[in-house]
Specification:
mainly alpha
Length: 315
């Protein structure tokens, strides 16, 4: 599939924003955080800002962005519509949660209920985003059972890294507040490694022979292109990346987005003062770069079944 930068930004930015909301809800439930106006304003501005920016960027990939609102009506059959509905619903409890945290400086009672609803809806929205791709049977690599867990894990990983880094600006984060983020980052990349291993070893779901129904005759090869010029299918679904380049990018993503953040945030848990903040910023930067590469590869390595009619051997 052709990697659309607007969709890559959408899935990473909104995932991080929703993940941050989940961590904020967990902090409120644990009761070991003191809500404050300035820090709360910064954290909710970051999370809701990323969510809004991500959702708006997703419309850039549409032929008619002004009609994006119509997608909300198809929630009975479309995961894209369900994701949109969940995203809109999440704003309600999130704004109430933010109001309690920032204005009333409280995370108990009604504000806690709003926080828990926010966390649940944020998880539902991330899962729905993953299901948009996991439900597309024409792209076998996206239907793997690990796709939705990977989306959830990376949303929590980036959201946790953002929360620790931004919260540390105002109050030093204790070690027990950093180690869970380190664990989630490690789990996210472990799941991604499992995904890569599964798609590399998966047997083809369809071949040129099965697609044309001519397999009983022998191997099927493309005699002549279906079109004399490039069309929509070829632009959107015909992207190919060499295996050696994909392997190199995977390694870079794993090292920069996995190893660097794990080491950096683990070191931050043992530090204080400016050194702690520098370690958090290093970990957050590496994670963001790695997740962007991971998401680009998610699209670049996927093969649509339609390409069997354009010369692809198998998907």
């Amino acid at each position: 599939m052709h990697p659309a930068y607007s969709v890559i930004f959408f899935t990473t930015a909104s995932g991080a924003g929703y993940g941050m909301l989940v961590w904020l809800a967990m902090l409120a439930l644990a009761g070991n955080v003191v809500p404050a106006m300035v820090s709360g304003l910064v954290m909710f501005a970051i999370s809701l800002g990323l969510i809004t920016a991500g959702l708006l960027s997703s419309t850039f990939h549409l032929g008619h962005p002004e009609r994006a609102w119509r997608a909300l009506s198809q929630w009975r059959s479309s995961w894209l519509s369900r994701e949109g509905v969940a995203a809109v619903i999440t704003y309600g409890p999130a704004l109430v949660f933010a109001l309690g945290w920032i204005i009333f400086e409280s995370t108990s009672g009604l504000w806690l209920i709003a926080g828990l609803a926010t966390g649940v809806m944020a998880l539902v929205t991330i899962a729905s985003t993953g299901m948009i791709y996991a439900s597309l049977k024409a792209i076998p690599r996206w239907t793997d059972v690990t796709v939705v867990p990977v989306y959830l894990a990376f949303g929590l990983a980036t959201g946790g890294a953002l929360l620790v880094t931004s919260y540390n600006i105002f109050t030093p984060v204790p070690p027990h507040g950093i180690w869970p983020v380190v664990l989630v980052i490690a789990v996210a990349w472990a799941l991604k490694l499992l995904y890569w291993r599964r798609i590399d070893n998966a047997k083809p779901v369809a071949t040129a022979e099965s697609a044309t129904g001519l397999g009983h005759i022998g191997p099927v090869t493309l005699f002549e292109a279906p079109h004399t010029g490039e069309n929509y299918i070829m632009r959107e679904m015909g992207f190919q990346i060499a295996r050696k380049h994909a392997a190199k990018l995977r390694m870079i993503a794993l090292l920069v987005g996995g190893a660097v953040p794990v080491v950096a945030f683990a070191a931050a848990a043992l530090m204080t003062g400016p050194a702690m903040m520098i370690a958090c910023l290093l970990g957050l930067t590496g994670l963001c770069i790695g997740v962007l590469l991971e998401r680009w590869l998610f699209f670049a390595e996927a093969q649509h079944a339609a390409m069997l009619y354009y010369g692809a051997k198998a998907v």
